[in-house]
Amino acid sequence: MIKVTVTKAKEFYEKYERFLVPAFLLIGFLLDVITFKSLQIETTFIILGVYAFVAGASIIYTSFYDGRKTPPQNIVLRYLRIGMPLLSQLALGSMLSSALLFYWFSGSLSASWPILVFVAILMVTSEVFRHIYLRPTVQIGFYAFILFSYFSILFPFLFTSLSAFVFLLGGTASYFIMLAIVSVLRYVSETAAQKKRRMFAAVTLVFFGMNALYFLNVIPPLPLAIRDAGVYYSVRRNWDGYTLVGDKEVFPANILPGQTLKSPADGTLYVYTEIFAPANLSTTIYHRWEYKDQATGKWTTRARPSFLLYGGRLPGYRGYTRNTHVSAGSWRVTVETERGQSLGRIPFTVVE
């Protein structure tokens, strides 16, 4: 009776696999969006840690099960093997979508678009070409990227620092965990043992590739994220917050990128930002004011003022800078860290 039930479960999975796998990927993405938007960041990291553990355990268990010459007779183990691909897809889908969300909210599109496009491609192709992702080398490389992304967010949160050393520490930790997983797979699966060099190469490629993207400032300064930003004629602090004076935007201007402001009489404009940062994290934020030369079409830096950011406020720490020599033309202000990692970019036009 039990054997018949297992057989039916396996037949059901194989029959509806093309619907079940993308469904679990979508469920993982939706769960992650809800988690990112509604839960505290500490809880989010715990949930993502559970997903990371489940994904790693499913890879090891699947290799162990498939690597045996005779399948285990234990009914629980056989049921687990049937459900592992769905569980793995749910965990990997959640972690992949979390990486996309963190990269999206923590960086400007102009600077971080390569990593955003790469993550989006992984999300789409992991379903369309899932038969390729089930190959040991590809699966290990895929998991190495996700684990590296998770640790690159987790370590700055744990150590309340955005330094390059903390990023390298997180990446190194994920690298050695992946090496340990590959070593385990060598002993539980003959197929993995035959492809150990390829798996080691995939893990190493991900490690050096992500570090290269970090030092090229393609990876944004996680876990910082801009909550609100804008250009104003006046910014004044009062007892319950800030008073912002600017032009009222009308449709469709309020849905298009960039603002249009009238040239101020005194040549002064303010850029106001609200930036989320975890509690106990403090760092310096810079506003790079750039003006576009109409003759050459090049952007030139006119000012780079800064202010100290203190984490812990859910809507974001509020800060602003001003420029007293704003002339008519095209401007942009890039919100960035001391290393030049871009959090966002605020384009605007000043007219006479």
In terms of topology, how is this protein built?
Blueprint: H1 2-38, H2 41-66, H3 75-106, H4 109-128, H5 130-133, H6 136-159, H7 164-188, H8 190-194, H9 196-215, E1 225-232, E2 234-238, E3 241-245, E4 259-262, E5 269-276, E6 282-292, E7 299-303, E8 306-310, E9 317-323, E10 329-336, E11 342-351
Parallel strand pairs: 4-11
Antiparallel strand pairs: 1-5, 2-3, 5-9, 6-7, 6-8, 6-10, 10-11
Helix pairs in contact: 1-3, 2-3, 2-6, 2-7, 3-4, 3-6, 6-7, 6-9, 7-9
Structure write-up:
The chain is an alpha+beta fold and 352 residues long. Helices cover 55% and strands 22% of the residues. The protein folds into two domains: 214 residues, no CATH class; 127 residues, Immunoglobulin-like, CATH 2.60.40.1930. It is built from nine helices and eleven strands. The strands form three sheets. Strands 4, 6, 7, 8, 10 and 11 form a six-stranded mixed sheet that branches. It has a three-stranded antiparallel sheet with strand order 1-5-9. The longest helix is centred in the first third of the chain and has 37 residues. It is elongated, with a radius of gyration of 24 Å.
